[in-house]
Specification:
Layout lengths: L24 E3 L3 E4 L3 E3 L4 E9 L6 E7 L4 E2 L5 E3 L10 E4 L4 E4 L1 E9 L2 E8 L9 E11 L12 E9 L6 E3 L3 E3 L9 E8 L5 E4 L12 E9 L4 E7 L8 E4 L4 E8 L11 E4 L2 E4 L3 E3 L3 E5 L4 E5 L5 E3 L3 E4 L9 E2 L12 E2 L8 E2 L5 E2 L5 E5 L2 E5 L1
Parallel strand pairs: 1-14
Antiparallel strand pairs: 2-4, 3-4, 4-12, 5-11, 5-13, 6-12, 7-12, 8-9, 10-11, 13-14, 13-15, 16-21, 17-20, 18-19, 18-20, 19-30, 22-23, 23-28, 24-27, 25-26, 26-29, 31-32, 33-34
């Protein structure tokens, strides 16, 4: 891939600072807008544009842009959008050299990884020609393997300042976080699915539609039987995007599931998706409510989180039954051949003890043990 050769005007005398006579900062509803990613065929780089949607004429601006993991850039990858006489910056045209000379320059620095600090000023304090327009372009490189399962990475813009000429008044738009990249990001995703032959059970949520791998069955939990204190499972014929499932493989399964993310869909900022009584996460998430699937020595079961923090990897699910079901754990029945029973029954409360690694202990000594999914201390 070619490295883009980008030329922008460095204001060596002013740097990233603004006039010391700047007055009070005034909140404004004027906006900074980030475009979707696009591909530059000539430079062979992705880029996005940063624009102003304003109501007054400004002379300068500054801001910080924080890019998520998987999207990297460099201070030399920032290009002031010129656009000749149609741009937002005043300019003069040299007929002999056939080029424009601009009154403003854009400077960029990187205070930390994936943080761009941008400033635009004019050494003669010239005003822009428009209230709205494209301010600059940022070229980036993508590493889709670092996007986890969020098809629209979050970009944060803060420290925004818009300056008008008269009295060097500074207007401050609200800081914001957004998901501007609804198109352009590589939409192909691959998720490893591993179900041990011992456990046979797991959970899964995908950001794309996919067929069931050979030997794998999938179930949704859409209803409850309050009288029997049980949760009913419904078999699924395939995986649907952003829906949580319990998965079962009689002989275990290890492989990859690939698919295409629908970037036109609307995704919640938290990447958390609930349907029925299962909740799935598409980004690594800390969970301290609901029931977490574990194997504490009696096979895989959903245990009450009971306020403890559990780190769920992207693509996993937890159980969120109604409060009417008061079981401390929900287990699985394997009465049918090569299939999971249609009902997850309430696991009986047991007095058995396990060590913190999940191994059953018949003759406990002084220490901390697990009993019915809770920690107990034996004196």
């Amino acid at each position: 891939m070619k490295k883009p050769i980008l030329i922008f005007y460095l204001l060596t005398l002013i740097g990233l600072s603004f006039p010391t006579s700047m007055g009070a900062q005034t909140p404004t509803t004027d906006n900074i807008v980030l475009s979707d990613l696009a591909w530059d065929n000539d430079l062979e780089f992705y880029f996005f544009d940063v624009s102003l949607e304003g109501s007054r004429i400004y002379t300068a601006y500054n801001m910080d842009i924080f890019l998520p993991d998987g999207i990297s850039t460099d201070k030399d990858y920032v290009l002031m959008t010129e656009e000749g006489s149609e741009g937002i910056y005043p300019c003069t045209y040299n007929k002999i050299k056939k080029e424009y000379t601009y009154t403003h320059g854009v400077s960029a620095s990187m205070p930390s990884t994936n943080q761009l600090r941008i400033a635009c000023t004019s050494d003669i304090n010239e005003e822009f020609t428009k209230t709205s327009g494209t301010l600059f372009r940022v070229y980036v490189e993508l590493d889709a393997s670092k996007f986890t399962f969020s098809p629209k990475p979050i970009v944060t813009v803060s420290g925004i300042g818009l300056v008008v000429k008269e009295g060097a008044q500074k207007y401050v738009p609200a800081d914001f976080s957004c998901r501007p990249f609804s198109t352009g990001i590589p939409a192909e995703r691959t998720l490893p699915l591993n179900i041990s032959a011992t456990n046979k059970i797991g959970t899964l949520i995908l950001p794309f539609d996919a067929t069931l791998p050979t030997g794998v069955k999938a179930y949704q939990c859409m209803s409850v039987d309050a009288e029997a204190q049980s949760l009913n499972l419904t078999a699924a014929s395939s995986f649907e995007a952003c829906k949580p499932y319990i998965v079962y493989a009689e002989n275990g399964y290890s492989g990859n599931i690939s698919g295409t993310v629908d970037l036109s869909a609307t995704y919640p900022d938290e990447d958390i998706y609930a349907e029925g009584y299962l909740t799935g996460v598409l980004s690594p998430t800390v969970v301290n409510t609901g029931y977490i699937m574990q194997n504490q020595g009696d096979g895989p079961m959903f245990y009450d989180a009971d306020g403890s923090n559990f780190s769920l990897p992207a693509g996993r699910c937890y159980l969120t039954p109604p409060t009417a079901l008061l079981s401390k754990a929900f287990g699985f029945s394997f009465e049918e051949v090569n299939a999971i029973n249609a009902v997850i029954g309430k696991s009986p409360i047991s007095s058995e003890l396990h060590d913190l690694s999940g191994r059953r202990v018949t003759q406990p000594t002084k220490g901390i043990y697990l009993q019915d999914g809770k920690k107990v201390f034996i004196k």
